Amino acid sequence: MSNQVMTVEAIRTLAHDTLKKFGADDLNAAAVAKTITKAERDGCVSHGLFRLPGYVATLKSGKVDGNARPTVKSLAPAVVQVNGHNCFAPSAVQEGRAALIEATNTCGIAIMPMIGVHHFAALWPDLEEICDAGLAAFACVSYKPSVIPAGGKKALYGTNPIAFGWPRPGKSPMIFDMATAVMARGEVGIAARDGHAIPDGVGVDADGNPTSDPNEILKGALLAFGGYKGSSISMMVELLAGAMIGESFSFEAAIRDNSDGGPPQGGEFLFAINPTLVRGNDGWGDHAEGFFDKIYEQDGTRLPGDRRYQNRAKHDRDGVEVSQIILDKIKAL
Ligand code: NDP
Q1: For ligand 1, is residue 159 a contact (CB within 6 Å)?
Q2: Which of 72, 95, 113, 253 has its CA 20 to 30 A from that of 130?
Q3: Which one of the listed residues 47, 118, 119, 315 is annotated catalytic?
Q4: For 21-30, 212-221, 270-279, which range has the lowest pLDDT when averaged over its residues?
Q5: What span, in angstroms and rounded, lies between the C-alpha atoms of 306 and 292?
Q6: Does residue 149 sit in helix, strand or coil?
């Protein structure tokens, strides 16, 4: 079965219209469709249209309110809290972003805790427009347990991604965005769907035995990257996106979740930094570019995000090849 080449705009329309069909209003459908489209455009297929059936399942079950209106509240000069009131996270990021940027440009650093949101996406789309405003930014989010704490046997942590973005005047920002599991669960899901084995050291089966079968890992658990070091970073994500902001740990989110195939309710922790205010001048841009040049000087290196930006340029020009399997799934919804 051949795949379909679609324009970026056609992908956005498909995502938007599908979400609207299942009850999302314009604000929420547009925010989620934008995030899905960004992922397809940048070649992050595990967070593009692949996720649409999950978003729809969550709208259908009523777990997410497709008509939610996130509210933005200043808890302190440098704390801009967004309550999503059960929206998908892109709507909350969109509604809070301007206030976060303003608070960061006033205080030098500002935090945007997001509560009552459902995160089912990559994190870099949450940061890119903040970095485009000349700010550095960090975000992290928990999910439901699928990662074993170092030394343990039972999943407790989510795959808990972290992302950090650095603004590059005149260029797209450097953003790294990575699960703290060895591999994102979505990638394991894609491997299971396509019948591919995955490398050793990614996960264990339901009995805790190492396996490279993605279907067995989906029934079992993943490992944190870097052994106990990644495990500690994953624990940090649980604390920041949970106890710190008044939201759930992954295990608490799972207890409450209805397992409809979509994302649980949880929190997202995000902060931004104005480098000019922190440094006292605007020399940070050139200083960092010289550092990035040092990285590029070495053969075989690249910056995180470079792959995405290359895909973006190619896909804007040639369109995006979208899996027919996923298009059929969307059609069948
Ligand atoms: P990857 O391991 O594919 O990539 C992690 C980061 O490393 C990316 O920023 C990537 O940049 C960069 N990178 C990869 N190779 C190199 C290299 N050779 N040199 C320099 N940088 C490199 O990502 P993961 O599989 O860990 O995560 C995938 C996505 O899943 C993330 O977007 C994450 O947010 C999302 N996720 C979301 C969850 C949720 O609950 N919402 C849960 C878990 C994960 P580039 O993109 O340019 O390749």
Answers
A1: yes
A2: 253
A3: 47
A4: 212-221
A5: 12
A6: coil
Q: Which of 117, 86, 114, 218 is nearest to 159 (CA)?
A: 218
315 is catalytic: no
Q: CA quadruple 6, 10, 14, 19: dihedral positive or negative?
A: positive
Cα separation, 189 vs 214, in Å, equals 7
For 170-198, the pLDDT digits (tens) are 999 999 999 999 987 778 888 998 999 89
> 1: pLDDT confidence band, cut at 50, 70 and 90?
low
CATH number at residue 220: 3.30.1370.60
Any catalytic annotation for residue 46?
yes
Task: Report the Cα 302 to chain-centroid distance in Å.
Answer: 21
- Percent over 90 (pLDDT), the chain: 90
Q: What is the distance between the alpha carbons of residues 19 and 75, in angstroms, rounded to a whole number? A: 32
Is the shortest distance between the CB of 223 and ligand 1 below 6 Å? no
- The domain in which residue 55 lies consists of 4-64+305-332
Could you tell me the CATH number of the domain that includes residue 20? 1.10.1530.10
Q: Are 137 and 271 in contact (CB under 8 A)?
A: yes
For residues 40 and 176, membership in a common domain is answered with no
DSSP 241: I
Domain count, the chain: 2
Percent of the chain with pLDDT over 70: 100
The torsion region of residue 99 among left (phi > 0), alpha (psi -120 to 50) and beta comes to: alpha
List the one residue out of 108, 222, 207 whose CA is nearest residue 155: 222
Decide whether any atom of ligand 1 lies within 6 Å of the 307 Cβ.
Answer: yes
- Cα(180) to centroid(ligand 1), Å: 10
Question: Does residue 310 line the site of ligand 1, with CB under 6 A?
Answer: no
Report d(CA 272, CA 105) in Å as an integer: 9
| For residue 111, pLDDT beyond 90 | yes
**Segment (H or E) for 310:** helix 306-318
Which run of H or E residues covers position 147? strand 147-148
- Count of CB atoms situated within 10 Å of the CB of 106: 12
